[in-house]
Amino acid sequence: MRNNHEIDYRIFGEEMQYVEVELDPQESAIAEPGSFMMMDDGIQMDTILGDGASQGSSFMDKLFSAGKRLLVGENLFLTAYTNIGYGKKRVSFASPYPGKIIALDLQQLGYKVICQKDAFLCAAKGVTIGIEFQKRLGTGLFGGEGFIMEKLEGDGLAFVHAGGHVLSRDLQPGELLKIDTGCIVAFTSTVNYDIQFVGGIKNTLFGGEGVFYATLQGPGRVWIQTLPISRLANRILAYSTTAGGRRKEEGSILGGLGNLLDGDGF
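^ that's the sequence the OP posted. Answer follows.
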């Protein structure tokens, strides 16, 4: 028996996915503003302060709980979608950029999962969306995800989004995984997260992979993404600002010819 609303779902698509959530009468799902795609008639939208997990709390408690979400890049308000009709109704939420949607059954994952900032997409009503402080100073100062991460707590379904391809890996007790800090999507609360210095002057100056990497030590499950949104944004920015917006190869012998062949002209 779950305390959170029990919802069914289906995930569609490949590169640009969306999740379809099926709601029984009086069931609700919560989602980030801007993720809504479509819904059946009979579903009511309602903007709520915080995550809706403790609507019986005082206004100040709700405000404090919602305010913490601003620290992880989420919105102060969420939108609740409730089936007020008869029979099953469906509401769909779209991913914000190319990647994969990950379904997390918190009941089977120890009731708590720690995620990168901006990862949350939607969840069953009752799931708590809060913040997780990294206790170690080095982790907070040098970790690619920063001092504050996002945590999802409860016993319902939650959905997060990641860039590129996503893989999950179960770490055995004591098993250590070294990973680029930006490639971490989420991990269960039993996983120990830390930051290590790469070491070596050549690695530091010329490695191109950053000065620090993350370590994840089991036991527990981790989710890893191949294309962090920050890496994608940096590549696009670098391309758009190269030579005042021109392509890198324009300074080469074949640059002008390349532009002519692909229709850009001289």
